[in-house]
Design goal:
DUF2283 domain-containing protein, UCP021389, 129 residues, DUF2283
């Protein structure tokens, strides 16, 4: 199963944070600070995955089909669209911190996952060794 999918026709990227069998989507909501990111919230109150549009999708598209997506430290998993993406603003919701390279929450830089909420074999398989 791919953690990141890219639909070239629609220009959308979808990033799975949980394996689809672990969480059924209950509702969708826009990220309050950036309307180009649509969250799918599972029945367990976690973000099952999210869809990116526009510039965020273009930045994430190269990761479609990659086998190693995350870097892990002591308490979280990290994903950055660029190796040295600077973070100037962030917004945390449902244990996920969305990071942006600008102060206005528009230039998507990646996200961090709280390991206490999102630790799973699925994420571990996608983590750099």
């Amino acid at each position: 199963m791919q953690a990141v999918t890219y639909d070239k026709d629609s220009g959308l990227v979808y990033i799975h944070l949980l394996h689809p069998k672990e969480s059924r989507n209950v509702r969708s909501e826009e990220l309050k600070v950036n309307d180009c990111i649509l969250l799918d919230i599972g029945q367990n109150g976690k973000i099952a995955g999210f869809e990116c549009f526009g510039e965020a999708a273009l930045l994430c598209a190269p990761f479609a089909g990659k086998s190693r997506l995350y870097v892990k430290d002591a308490d979280s998993y990290h994903f950055r669209v660029r190796q040295q993406a600077s973070v100037r603003s962030s917004y945390t919701v449902y244990g996920v911190t969305f990071c942006f390279s600008d102060g206005g929450y528009q230039e998507f830089a990646g996200f961090d996952l709280d390991e206490s909420m999102y630790h799973s074999a699925f994420l571990q398989r996608l983590t750099e060794k």
